[in-house]
Amino acid sequence: MNILAFETSCDETAVAVVRDGRHSLSSVVLSQTELHALYGGVVPELASRRHTEAMVMLTDQALTQAGLTRPDIDAVAVTHAPGLIGALLVGVGFAKGAAYALGKPLIPVHHIRGHIAANYLCHPELKPPFIALVASGGHTLILHVSDYTEMTVLGSTRDDAAGEALDKVGRVLGLGYPGGAAMDALAAQGPADAYRLPRPLVEGNPYDMSFSGLKTAALSVLNSARMKGETVDRAGLAASFVGAVCDILVSRTVLAMEQSDCETCVLAGGVAANTRLRRELAQALSSRALFMPTVSLCGDNAAMIGAQAYYEQLAGASADMSLNGYASCSV
User: Fold this and answer.
1) Do residues 169 and 209 make contact, with C-beta atoms less than 8 angstroms apart?
2) Given a cut of 90, is residue 37 above it in pLDDT?
3) What is the pLDDT, as a whole number, of residue 105?
4) Same domain, yes or no: 42 and 69
5) Is the N end or the C end of the chain the one with fewer CB atoms within 10 Å?
6) Residues 134 and 243 in one domain
7) Pairing of strands 140-147, 12-19
């Protein structure tokens, strides 16, 4: 089955063609990073406009890259939630038009499920059940994936997402937007114990996380140094902050693995590209099976949506022309 997939949940416009949930025949992504960097973050209205401008061009590129024509497409998939509502509606509207014009089924896909499915493209042997850690700029979740379309949230962040916290601290350190990759590079140059930062615990659920207090603590270090006229070890603070974020993510994931019947763990989301997180999670789960997507598939892309759409279709999921986009939606 050849699935034409669209992803427009934030500021990447992405189109891909995926075959049978495991083979990416094409994947094109148009980033808007340079545009939004001018404002220090994503401007929703501008993101939606850029999506609208790029959809036709990227669709043609994806089909050409896949070596297919429109009649070769068997279904159309699209991210319908969660995300920036205006951006989502551009993708949903275009996908509905494509499905209607082609006379093919329309498959809605949850963005988080898509991130998890990126691993199916990299690891053909991967099958549920497993524990999944999904960490990105907008989401931080630990899930029990019992089947391809059956997932239970075990824990989540109570405030900021891990990627959001990394971006904000990175911006204050002068790294610009987005700050995740730059924080990763800067942290590699400093000692992880340069500054003592908290690892907040959350009452009521041992798997839940909180990054707001950690972010505030890092900003306090910077503000205090500036008021005293002291120099901040930028690399050391970046390393300490990244280390704290990784400690929180890894500890909760390891606990979920220990208290479940799963011997397999999956890492997904934009923060999954962080070198320290990949290294520390691999070390902590050395006696278990750990699957991580390639760095190119950690961020938002349409190939992951096409991969998950295959399994959604097998489970009977489909939508008609009344499909809507939703800024928030349970997994």
Assistant:
1) no
2) no
3) 98
4) yes
5) N
6) yes
7) unpaired
In total, the chain counts a number of residues equal to 331
Contact present, 221 and 195 (Cβ < 8 Å): yes
Do 136 and 266 fall within a single domain? yes
Which residue has tokens 């075959």? 19
Which residue pairs from 28-32 have beta carbons closer than 8 angstroms and sit at least 24 positions apart in sequence? 28/58, 28/61, 28/62, 28/65, 28/302, 29/299, 29/300, 29/301, 29/302, 30/54, 30/58
For the question of whether the overall pTM of this predicted structure is more than 0.90, the answer is yes
With a cut of 90, say whether residue 215 has pLDDT above it: yes
Strand order in the sheet with 150-156: 150-156, 140-147, 130-135, 264-268, 289-291
In-domain check, residue 320: no
Average pLDDT over the chain, rounded to whole?
A: 95
Residue 234: inside a domain, yes or no? yes
SS3 46: helix
CB atoms under 10 Å from CB of 45, counted, come to 10
Please give the helix or strand (H or E) that residue 218 lies within, else none.
helix 212-228
Cβ atoms 146, 160 nearer than 8 A: no
In which domain, by residue range, is 79 found?
2-117+298-314
Alpha helices (runs of H) in 173-211, residue ranges in sequence order: 180-187
Number of structural domains, the chain?
2
Q: How many CB atoms within 10 Å of residue 324?
A: 14
Long-range Cβ pairs for the range 100-104 (8 Å, 24+): 100/321, 102/70, 102/71, 102/73, 102/76, 104/73, 104/74, 104/75, 104/76
Angle at 127 between CA 88 and CA 257, to 5 degrees: 90
Domain of 64: which CATH number? Answer: 3.30.420.40
In percent, the amount of the chain with pLDDT more than 70 equals 100
Q: Residue 39: is its pLDDT beyond 90?
A: no
